[in-house]
Amino acid sequence: MASSSEIGLAAAINILTAFAFLVAFAILRIQPINDRVYFPKWYLKGLRNNPLQSGAFVQKFVNLDFRSYLRFLNWMPAALHMPEPELIDHAGLDSVVYLRIYLTGLKIFVPIACLAFTVMVPVNWTNRTLEQSKLTYSDIDKLSISNIPSGSNRFWTHLVMAYTFTFWTCYILKREYEIIAAMRLHFIASEQRRPDQFTVLVRNVPPDPDETVNELVEHFFLVNHPDHYLSHQVVYNANSLSKLVNEKKKKQNWLDYYQLKYNRSNRSKKPSMKTGYLGLWGKRVDAIDYYQSEIDKLSKEICKEREKITTSSKYIMPASFVSFKTRWGAAVCAQTEQSRNPTIWLTEWAPEPRDVYWDNLAIPFVSLTIRRLIIAVAFFFLTFFFMIPIAFVQSLANIDGIVKAAPFMKGVMKVDFVKSFIQGVLPGIALKIFLIFLPSILMMMSKFEGFTSISALERRSATRYYMFQFINVFLGSIITGTAFQQLNTFIHQSANTIPVTIGASIPMKATFFITYTMVDGWAGVAGEILRLKPLIFYHLKNFLLVKTEKDREEAMDPGSLSFNTGEPRIQLYFLLGLVYAVVTPILLPFIVVFFGLAYVVYRHQIINVYNQEYESAGAFWPDVHGRIITALIVSQLLLMGLLSTKEAAQSTPLLIVLPVLTIWFHRFCKGRFEPAFVRYPLQEAMMKDTLERAREPCLNVKDYLEKAYVHPVFNNDNQWDGSDNGTSDDEWPKEPTLVATKRSSRTNTPAQSQRSESRRTLLDVTDERSCP
Hints:
34 helices; 4-stranded antiparallel beta sheet; ion channel; mainly alpha; calcium; two-stranded antiparallel sheet
C-alpha cells in the first residue's frame, strides 16, 4: 500500500514526466522538419504549405526565431480558442461529441470534489478507527470511510452525499444528452448530401432457383417500393482481388521510386536491385524492368480474378446496397420490416462509403451467430486468464502486507526511495504495459464477428474493453489487492470477520488507483500530444522508405480518435470517480486533473492532427451515457455493501432507493433521447428532400449514387460498372410498372386465388421497360 510520501514521490515523477513531454512537444512542434507530424490535418485539407520548401538551408530544419521558444505554451489557449460550431465544420460532430465526454467529466467531478473535500474529508479524518485496528493502512487511508467506527451516526453524512452526488450526476447527464441529441438532429438537417442518406444495406437475401441475387433484389424493391427504389449494387466477395490490387500498388510505388531516381541522376546506367528478401541477396537485375514485369504479371492476374468474380455467381453474396430516390424512401425501408419472415430481407442504414468494412461483407449472414458465440467464449477465457497479471501488479502495490507475511523480503525494502518508487510508480506502469496489446486483440475479435462498418467494429471493441477494465482492472485490482494487502490479517483471524476486513480494505485501494491515474491519465495524456511514435516513424520512413510525395503524405500518419480504446479509458475514470467520491474523496482531484488536461490535449489534436475515418453524427453517445449510469449504479451497490459491513443498519436500507431511481432515470433518457440516435425522423427526411428539390430541381441522384458503394478495387476501373442500371431520373415511373422476372410458375399450387392472380400479373414478363 502506498503511503503519503510514496504518493508524493509518484506525483512528483509523473508531474515532471508530463511537464517534460509538454515542453518537448512545444519545442518539437515549431521545428520546420516536424511540421507534417504535428499539423497533418491542415496538410490533408490543403491549407498548409511545407516550410522545408522555402528559406535558408538551416531554417528549413531548425526554427531560429528564439521569441517563439518563449511562447512555448501558446498552443493551450489556441486549442480552446476555436468555437464549437467552427470545430464541427472543421473536424465533424463525432470529434466534438467525443470532447464533450471530457467536458461532462469536468462538470460532474469539479463540484463533487469541492463538496467532498468540504464535507467528507473532515468527517473521515476526525476519527482514530484505523489506528486502533490491526489493518495495514497509510496516512491517506485516514481520509476514507474506513476510518469511521462501525455503527457511527456519521454514516448519515455519506448517505446524504450519495444522494447529492447521484442527483447532480443525473442532472448533468440529462443536460448533455439533451444538448447532444439537439446537435445531432441539427447536424443531420444541415449537413451536405451524402450517399448513406439514400442507401440501405440489405442482408440475407433468400436464394431463388430461377433468379440471380441481382435480379431478385431489383424485383423485390420494384414491387415493394415502386415509387422510391432507384438502383442497387450487389456485394461481391472481392477479398482475393483486393490483395492482388494492394500488391500491385506496392510494386507500382517501387517502380515510381526507381524511375524518379533514374530521372534525377545524371548516370546513363539504370538502377539495379537484388530479388531476394529485402533486397539483401539474390540475382541482381534491372530494377525498373523487374518491377515493370511484376506489375504486368499482377495486372493479368487482376484481370483474370475480376472476370472470375463478375461472371461466377458463387462470388455474389446474398447482400446488396439499395439506393432510393429520396431520403424519405430510404428511411422507410431501413426502419421497417420487409417480409413476413423476420430472418430474410433484413435492412439497416448503410454506413457511409468510407465507413464500410468491405472484408466482412463477404461473410455469410448465417455464420454470424456462430462467430459471435465463439468470440463470446474466447472473451470469457481472455478475461479470466488476465487475472494472473492483475494479481502480479497488485503484489507490487502491496509490498508492506507481503513483507509482514513473508519476513525474508525485508532486505529488499531497506532503501526508502526504492520502496517508494516500487509502490508509488511501478504498479501503474506494470498495469499499463499489460494493457498495451489488449485493444488490438479485441479489435481482431470484433472483425471475426463480422460487423460491416468500422464504426460498429469500434463500438463493439469499446464495449468489450470497458467490460474487461471493469472486471479486471477495477474488480480484479480490488479483490486481489485486498487479499495481498491484508494477507497477514486474513491468516490470523476467523472466517467470520473476513467480510468486515474486506469492507474496510476496499476504500483503501484508492491509493493504487491514484498511482494508475497519474501514470495513465497524466503522463499518458501528455505523451499523446508528444506523438513520439509517429514522430520517430515519420522520420524513419522519410529517410528510408519515402520515394514520392504520395509516400510522404502517407508517412504523416495523422491517426484518429480511436473510439475503441479512448472511450473505455475515459469510462474507467468515471467509474473510479463515482465509486470513490463518497468512500475515499482523496482520489477526486487526480480525476479532475485528468479530465482537464485531456480536454485541452485532445482538443488540440482534433484541430491539428487527427483525421477521422468516418462520421456517425455522434451515434455513440447512448453507449457513453449507459456506461456512466452503470458506474453510478455500481458505486451505489458498493456503498450499500460497505455500509452493511459497518453495522449502519439504519442508513443502509435508504440506499436501496438510489439504484431504483437511477434505473428509472436511465429508462426515461432512453425513451426521451435515444430515438434520435437510432432512427431517422421521417419529418426531417421529408423536409430535407423538399428543400433539396427546391434548391436543385435538376439534381440527378442516380449519377450521384452510381459508384458510391462499388467495392474500392473496382471503383477506379473505367471498365467496371458494378451498379445496377436502375431507373434514370427523367424516367421515374408515374404509374405502377410491370416487373420483368425469370421465375417460372409453380405447378404444385392447387388453386389460384384472386390475390395471387393479380400478383402474377404484376410480375409478368415484359421487355417494354428500358434502362439507360
